[in-house]
Amino acid sequence: MLTVSSIAELRPLVKKWRREGDRIAFVPTMGNLHAGHLKLVDEASKAAERVIVSIFVNPSQFGPGEDFASYPRTEADDAKALASCSVDVLFLPRPEAMYAKDHATSIAIDKLSTLHCGVSRPGHFSGVATVVAKLFNIVQPDIAFFGEKDFQQLTIIRRMVRDLNFDVEIRSVATVREPDGLAMSSRNNYLSAEQRTCAPELYRLLCSARDKAQQPDSQLGEIQREAMATLKSFGFEPDYVSFCRTYDLEPASEQDVELVLLAAAKLDKTRLIDNLRFSRYARH
Ligand code: PAF
Predict the structure, then answer these.
(1) Domain termination site, one of 148, 173, 198
(2) Which of 91, 143, 184, 225 has a 20 to 30 A CA-CA distance from 134?
(3) Which pTM value belongs to this model?
């Protein structure tokens, strides 16, 4: 595995592989790698001859007062973990190479980026879309891999790729969970022992809300309200619990069949997100 931090060094490598007919799979990350990231890397290595993983803690997706400064940076351990996977290049761009001092261009995804997490994190998804677009332009991948845990992010990236005609196939990979159901996330490291015991309640609650939604006379609005109250009773500060249509993340109606249940809640300062996709029986 080669570690490359300069864009100018990466480009000729990618060009050479393309000339040789190799396909390139790309896994963008912010590091502090866990089993969820390694699953993305594993899928990437099955999908293409060449695999590039990037680690870049992207400042433009953190709002004021968020955890940019304290976000765990564990590059040496990450590099070690990736060295035992089938990775050709670990790309570690320097912030000054990614954002010129007078960087002035960004991508806005109307509507989708203002829903759900976009309400409490204004600007976050524009920061994500912009850095992913930049990374796609640098890495020129054939296929890129994203985790389903960040379902809104995944939906936004798919929309950006469609709307701006990026020649990249987006593949998603199922959320990897701890044995007690907690979705793996770098931010789980912030949890105290007591909070860590409580954290899996978020996933349990999603499972229970999904089961209720599948009952014949259930009402989605009522289940959402109950779920918010249950989260509070466990000590969470819930941001939202929302049954949505899978394709545009707008609130689901009682008639929608393919749903995603999205949730975000804080345990003290740690913001956790999770989701569940499911089908509901058609109602008339
Ligand atoms: O999901 C993440 O780790 C980040 O949002 C991403 C896609 C690498 C962009 O910085």
Answers:
(1) 173
(2) 184
(3) 0.97
